[in-house]
Amino acid sequence: MTQHEKFLKRLMDAAADKDISFSELCAFLRRFGFEERIRGDHHIFFRESVEEILKLVPDTLREAALALGTPRWKVVLFIVIPTVLPGLLTSIMLAVARAAGETAPLLLTSLGNTFFNFDLRRPMAAMPLQIYSYAISPYDDWHKKAWGATLLLIALVGIISGAVKYFTRRWNHESH
Amino acid sequence: MSLIKSMADIVRPHSETENSVSSREPKIQIRNLNAFYGKQHAIEDINLDIYPGLVTAIIGPSGCGKSTMIRCINRMHEVIKGAYATGEVIVDGENIYAPDADPVRIRRRIGMVFQKPNPFPTKTVYENVIAGLRLNLPKQKKSYYDEVVERSLMAAALWDEVKDKLNAPGTALSGGQQQRLCIARALAIEPEILLLDEPASALDPTATLKIEDLLFSLKEQYTIVLVTHNMQQAARASDMTAFFMAGEDHKGRLIEYGETKEIFINPKDKRTEDYISGRLG
């Protein structure tokens, strides 16, 4: 077993937290493709997202398109974006999944509305917010609705993730 | 000296290039060309006439500015951040560095093939060939594209190998095939000039020879400029050779230019002789 596998086993065994050293954890995150930035005693881990993925397209491809006499905007639209589409969709999916789980910011931004509303300037309903307000209500019926909405939310994230996975795999398969 | 002699054996027998050069009008005239990367002065005061119907090779040690030179001919040099050029490159009497010249339009007349094969990975062989047409010209009938694909792949000596896999991804071909696909892609837009920046440096000897044979068959129709660090390749494939070298100040300059035969057998400059005989670079 490699060191990484041993570490993974320990992590999955759910043994006590103190078994996992900080440096091991950092190495683990780096292995997952996270970038590490150290500020004093803060270790900040982050993952490159959309902009960085666009930059992943090798310059040789951009040059190939430019040398054919293609204007820059067409190079981006027809060459760069299609090439990175799988990565781009993954990023978007991650963002959607993350946004779907957010509730606290919605309290101050979307504010919630019990009626249907299309006007962006007025308070708008948001499912996580609705779940929250139903869950803290005293009514049994509302609790049930909150559970149902939670299931729906999870199902939506699951469906989006699954669809993106399916399409990116198909595209990757076609292009390799 | 023995090396020079063996080089002379490689040089293809050129059929009356001498007469033809003097009788030809230059297709490309490079005048006082200077190219920069930010503050770095990459090539200095280049003056060079390139003739149609011939293969002109640019040779020289690494860092002598030969790639920079070729990229100035279709204004691809300035694509790199901070890069710019001054001077004139006159193609058919028109200065492509004139203030009102449009680099995008210029590049449609001048095809380019790069060091590493770079077919578009999301496109099939067929789509790769017509990429330039589809991206930049009004849509045409399928039969028109079919014809362009066949003609371009034939010209790039690739048709027989890929005619049954036109719908395979361009990146599924071998390295040598990918490079010929890139040549076909460049030819599909019917350029007058074909620039090749070390097109065979990532290929094996067999694929390299195929590319060289291809250049030989294309030169009747196109003005071909070939950058290579491989002297044997220059000797085999070109009619004219320009030798570039960077001085102590890292600025690339044109040292000697003439018929390939002359450059390899009777170099006039000591530096050319040193480079060709392998004492330099």
Describe the structure concisely for a colleague.
The complex is a heterodimer of chains A (176) and B (281). Chain A has helices spanning 3-12, 22-31, 50-55, 59-67, 72-100, 104-108, 127-135, 140-175, and strands at 35-39, 42-46.
Describe it for me?
Chain A: Keywords: Membrane, Transmembrane, Transmembrane helix. Chain A: Residues 45-171 form the ABC transmembrane type-1 domain. Chain A: It is a multi-pass membrane protein. The complex is a heterodimer of chains A (176) and B (281). A two-stranded antiparallel sheet of chain A has the order 1-2. With 176 residues, chain A is mainly alpha-helical. Chain A has helices spanning 3-12, 22-31, 50-55, 59-67, 72-100, 104-108, 127-135, 140-175; strands spanning 35-39, 42-46. Chain A is built from eight helices and two strands, in the order ααββαααααα. In chain A, α5 runs antiparallel to α8 (140-175) and α7 runs antiparallel to α8. In chain B, β9 and β10 form a beta hairpin. Chain B is an alpha/beta fold and 281 residues long. Chain B has helices at 2-10, 17-23, 66-73, 103-109, 125-129, 131-136, 142-155, 159-162, 175-188, 205-218, 231-237, 260-265, 270-276; strands at residues 28-37, 40-50, 55-59, 83-91, 94-95, 110-113, 193-197, 223-227, 240-246, 252-259. Chain B has a six-stranded mixed β-sheet with strand order 6-7-8-3-9-10, sandwiched between helices. Chain A binds chain B through residues 58, 60-71, 74, 78-79, 82-83, 85, 171, 174-176, and chain B through 74, 76, 79, 104-109, 111-112, 114, 116, 118-122, 131-132, 135-136, 169, 171-172, 182, 185-186, 189.
